[in-house]
Sequence to fold (79 residues):
Amino acid sequence: MTSAGFNVTSSLTLVGFSSLSGHSSLLFFVFLLLYLFLLFSDSLVIYIICSQRALHRPMFAFVASLSAELSHSQHTDLS
Fold:
């Protein structure tokens, strides 16, 4: 039974990079490195705030929770 209003997507095209389709491997590694750098930097912020007792004030707790929120929401669900 199929519901009306749902589409099945089998591919994803980044419109800004459609002319660079021959360099898809290079773009993949550039975006992978960017993602890993952001994930590492967010983890580093959380680690520093959790390990330093002086940084347990509400402002730093907010920064740590914001960093955790951003690192968990940096994925795209295509389903």
